[in-house]
Amino acid sequence: MKPDFIVIGAQKCGTTTLCRELERHPEVGLFPHKETHFFSFRYNRGLKWYEQLFDGINGRVKGEGSPSYTTGEFSKLAATRIAADLPAVKLIFIARHPLERLPSGYTQLFDSGLKPGTFEEEVRESPKLLPASCYHARLQDFYEHIPRESILVMFLEDLK
Q1: Segments of 5-95 assigned E as strands
Q2: What whole-number distance in Å separates Cα of residue 39 and Cα of residue 49?
Q3: Which residues of 33-57 are buried (b: 16+ CB within 10 A; e: fewer)?
Q4: Distance from C-alpha of 148 to C-alpha of 145, rounded to nearest angstrom
Q5: Residue 34 and which of 17, 65, 67, 113 are 20 to 30 A apart at CA?
Q6: pTM metric for this prediction
Q7: CA–CA separation, 42 vs 35, rounded Å?
């Protein structure tokens, strides 16, 4: 079974919070581990493998959330794959004020097992920290392949 929607990001912008809120609705079923990473890291497993992840999930509407789909290294590729494999899917892109996202992105560097420098050094030098807050660029990758009316852009500040 194919999902009806995907929460595509951005990282550290409330994708987990949004998925938890959606999951509270009695007619919505989400992949229980939130992030399948299928269209980024696990595409080689095949579409059948991905569709089986949604078998047995209760809910009239089913979905998943994988913010990796809008990371700089994967956004163009994920957008192309999603458009080809799920032409009817709806996407939800959640963002937050970019300056509010930066400290969360910095903290994630530690969570990823990296040994980052100071916050100031990472803002200047990290190849991922600032680009992750360039939401327009990430969205543009999706707008090139998916109709705008199929993408909802929202802000964490509004969700709160």
Answers
A1: 5-9, 28-30, 61-65, 90-95
A2: 12
A3: ebbbbbbbeebeeeeeebeebbeeb
A4: 9
A5: 113
A6: 0.89
A7: 11
